[in-house]
TrEMBL record:
Organism: Zophobas morio
UniProt GO MF annotations: oxidoreductase activity
InterPro entries referenced in this protein's UniProt entry, alphabetically: AKR, Aldo/ket_reductase_CS, NAD(P)_OxRdtase_dom_sf, NADP_OxRdtase_dom
Pfam families linked to this entry: Aldo_ket_red
Official protein name in the record: NADP-dependent oxidoreductase domain-containing protein
Limits of the NADP-dependent oxidoreductase domain: 1-147
Source organism, top-level taxon: Eukaryota
Length: 166
């Protein structure tokens, strides 16, 4: 990838699903530092330590699957999507927002970029309309309390690989 940057074929380098140990190993050997680390970030897996580590190294964190995987709810053994939590729905009503908008606002307040997946125009519009309210400390504390280090995307098929990051 460094050669691609040098040849003008790529502007920057990014990584995905790197933990602090992997980032450190990369930083110890690279000439061009990655500018982004794309990882799963949800209230169930808020990754605050990794986000802090990346900020200290001037690496942007982009969170994928920020709303969980609603389509797999109840079938994958993974966590319930936070936006289905009745308390989240109540919090959303308080701000005249959906639970999904509350989740996205919370995650952006952690200092990350989020990539919510949607193919429906109303949801896409809703997902961007998250910057006109600030969550109360009690609501942030509730969202913080949901962190259980539960992944939606386990990538268990790679668990036997030596640098498996999870």
């Amino acid at each position: 990838m460094e050669n691609c940057v040098k040849q003008g074929l790529a502007k920057n380098i990014g990584v995905s699903n790197f933990n602090p140990q992997q980032i450190t190993r990369l930083l110890d050997h690279c000439k061009i530092k990655p500018v982004v680390n794309q990882v799963e970030v949800t209230p169930n897996l808020n990754q605050k330590d990794l986000i802090k580590f990346c900020k200290e190294h001037e690496i942007v964190v982009t969170g994928y699957a920020p709303l969980g995987r609603n389509a797999h709810h109840g079938t994958s053994g993974g966590p319930t999507p936070t936006m289905l939590d009745p308390k989240m729905i109540q919090i959303g009503e308080k701000y005249k927002k959906s639970a999904a908008q509350v989740v996205l606002n919370y995650l952006v307040s952690l200092g990350i970029a989020v990539v919510p997946r949607s193919v429906h125009k109303p949801h896409i519009c809703e997902n961007i309309n998250i910057f006109d309210f600030t969550l109360a400390p009690a609501d942030v504390a509730y969202l913080d309390s949901l962190n259980k280090n539960q992944r939606v995307v386990t990538m268990s098929e790679f668990s036997s690989h030596p640098p498996y990051s999870f």
